[in-house]
Specification:
The complex is a heterodimer.
Chain A lengths: L10 H18 L7 H9 L9 E2 L12 H6 L12 H5 L9 E6 L5 E4 H5 L5 E8 L4 E11 H7 L8 E6 L19 E5 H4 L5 E6 L2 E2 L9 E3 L12 E7 L6 H5 L23 E4 L9 E2 L7 H4 L13
Parallel strand pairs in A: 1-4, 2-11, 5-12
Antiparallel strand pairs in A: 2-3, 4-5, 5-8, 6-7, 6-11, 8-9, 8-10, 12-13
Helix pairs in contact in A: 1-2
Chain B lengths: L4 H31 L14 H30 L8 H23 L4 H10 L1 H18 L3 H7 L1 H7 L2 H15 L5 H38 L14
Helix pairs in contact in B: 1-2, 1-3, 2-3, 2-8, 2-9, 3-5, 4-5, 5-8, 8-9
The chains are: A alpha+beta, B mainly alpha.
Chain lengths: ~325, ~240
């Protein structure tokens, strides 16, 4: 991740890449929604930087990823506004560098880490994951990242560390949506420690081969593909290990509607809408909803984490 | 040829309002044609989730036009502009049109005409229950919007059309219960509705007070009949 002056991409090269990416995005969009909007979205990305990564076939879906335009233009990131297109419009004010992350709580290695020091030891890989939003829509996203468990292990959590808590940046100057108390800022999410150590849970720093756009949670975010999207917290500034279950933002905001676990589950409806089916973004106007899979289709890998648990009560 | 005030309302203002009411639909159809690749707009008007975008747009314009319809009577009295009444039926029917389209879009496109889902949604999801109830309340109003129905129903017409008040309350509730956390926008709709209904309560009280005052004045002139205490008179 460290950039040497020699590695900075000359302008003609990245311009060509942008056009190439816009082309890829266009191919992916079944509804042919991609055109100037795509180029624009790519331009808005503050730092166009190609990442070096390997592909993970073991953990990637064979489904066609959504277009870059869809992934960067249709977001829930309330720190930049509650409309789906607000993050793409407003996230330009976020400064993902310099960035640091505080690590504390029940662990032996604590401290404040500069972004590069935090990420440097981890080889990047591409994971093409399904993302299922609690609002009953879904996408397929080619994330670039590394296993969260590898990062967690570096901090040597103690035997008392039963949970990991993550916190998003709080700075209304960079995140204009925080001027309104839509949620109790800063955004907090958490995982049980065994969930955090699961190889499917990753820290993402990029998508479509480039550095993560601001509206997708730059410079680093969590991706937990078997849980509803709101668990995958963005723009992380703090990682804390704790003995007790963290109080997470949506669960605090509406405890009847959002639980701590938030595993994708078609059998447990949201009190206000059905979770049985989902609308795949980019499938086109005439495509019908598709059935939602338990654990978002990752049950074979993760179901054993919840053996013996009542998932209707621990929703 | 010169148009009188009636002619201007009929031949200029009404067609203009008609076209204005069609504008949101026109934008949606253009966006739809773009999403289907029939035309090319400079920007993708319907975004990444065209189904949701169309459904929300139809619903929000239905609710907006419903509130505009409810604003006709207050504005007419406050501005002293009786001609506004001429627009009320058209506005109300457009509100009904957008709300029906919102429902039909949900049923046919979003849920692919799955009756089981429809039944479950109406029975189990309060925000859909109230939205559906609002639509049901509006159906008899749309059916009795003709001049003939008005004549035939006489005084009952006005009583029947008071159903628009609960329909508007249910419509705003439908919007309020649908949002996840950001309730600012639905609260604006509730506020507008509160002003429009509050004005009617205020006017009603004013009228009954004035009526009572007249009655009292009459009683002062007529000597109270023996054996009939004043308190027993209906208020």
């Amino acid at each position: 991740m460290r950039i040497k002056p020699s590695e900075i991409t000359p302008e003609p090269v990245y311009r060509a890449r942008r056009e190439f990416l816009a082309g890829i995005a266009g191919l992916g969009a079944a509804t042919a929604l991609a055109r100037p909007a795509v180029a624009q979205t790519v331009m808005n990305v503050a730092l166009i930087e190609r990442l070096k990564y390997t592909r993970s076939a073991r953990y990637s879906t064979a489904e066609t990823p959504n277009s870059l335009a869809d992934i960067t233009g249709y977001n829930n990131f309330y720190e930049f506004g509650t409309g789906k297109d607000d993050p793409a419009r407003n996230a330009g004010s976020l400064r993902p560098r310099p960035w640091s992350v505080v690590v504390d709580g029940e662990c032996e290695v604590k401290g404040r880490y500069a972004l590069d020091d935090l990420l440097q030891p981890h080889p990047l890989e591409e994971r093409i994951y399904r993302l299922r939003c609690v609002e009953a829509w879904s996408m397929v996203i080619p994330w670039i990242g590394f296993p969260l468990g590898d990062l967690v292990a570096r901090f040597k959590p103690t035997s008392r560390a039963k949970f990991v808590e993550f916190t998003t940046l709080q700075d209304p100057k960079q995140m204009p949506g925080q001027r309104f108390a839509v949620l109790d800022w800063p955004y907090v999410e958490g995982l049980r420690i065994d969930e955090a150590m699961h190889p499917l849970a990753i820290i993402a720093v990029g998508l479509y081969g480039q550095v993560l756009p601001n509206q997708n949670g730059a410079p680093l975010r969590l991706v937990v593909p078997w849980k509803y999207g709101f668990k995958s917290i963005k723009s992380i500034v703090r990682i804390r290990f704790s003995e007790r279950m963290p109080a997470t933002s949506w669960a605090l905001s509406a405890p009847r509607e959002y639980g701590f676990y938030a595993n994708v589950n078609p059998e447990v409806d949201h009190p206000r809408w059905s979770q049985k089916r989902e609308r795949r973004i980019g499938a086109g106007l005439l495509a019908s909803r598709q059935p939602t899979l338990k654990f978002n289709g990752y049950g074979a890998d993760v179901a054993q984490l919840y053996a013996g648990m009542d998932l209707a009560r621990n929703f | 040829m010169r148009l009188g005030a009636d002619g201007a309302t009929r031949w200029i203002a009404k067609p203009l309002v008609f076209l204005l009411c069609l504008l949101p639909l026109g934008c949606l159809l253009a966006g739809l044609a773009d999403a289907l690749g029939l035309i090319r707009l400079p920007a993708a008007a319907l975004g990444a989730n065209p189904v949701e975008e169309m459904q929300d747009t139809l619903g929000i314009w239905g609710l907006r036009l419903l509130l505009v319809t409810l604003a006709v009577t207050p504005l007419r009295e406050i501005l002293g502009w009786p001609r506004l009444l001429a627009f009320r039926r058209m506005l109300g029917l457009f509100a009904f049109f957008y709300i029906s389209m919102h429902f039909l879009f949900y049923l046919f496109v979003d849920q692919s005409l799955d009756w089981r889902v429809l039944a479950e949604d109406i029975a189990e999801r309060p925000f859909i229950t109230v939205g559906f109830a609002a639509l049901l309340l509006l159906i008899p109003l749309a059916l009795t919007s003709t001049r003939r129905a008005m004549r035939r129903l006489g005084r009952r017409w006005q009583k029947l059309h008071r159903l628009v008040y609960p329909a508007a309350v249910l419509g705003c509730t439908h919007f309020y219960w649908q949002v996840k956390a950001d309730i600012r926008e639905p609260l604006v709709y509730f506020l507008v509705l509160a002003v429009l209904l509050g004005w009617r309560v205020y006017r009603y009280r004013q009228r009954t007070r004035r009526g009572r005052a007249k009655q009292d004045a009459r009683q002062d002139q007529e000597p109270a009949r023996p054996g009939l205490p004043v308190e027993a008179l209906p208020e």
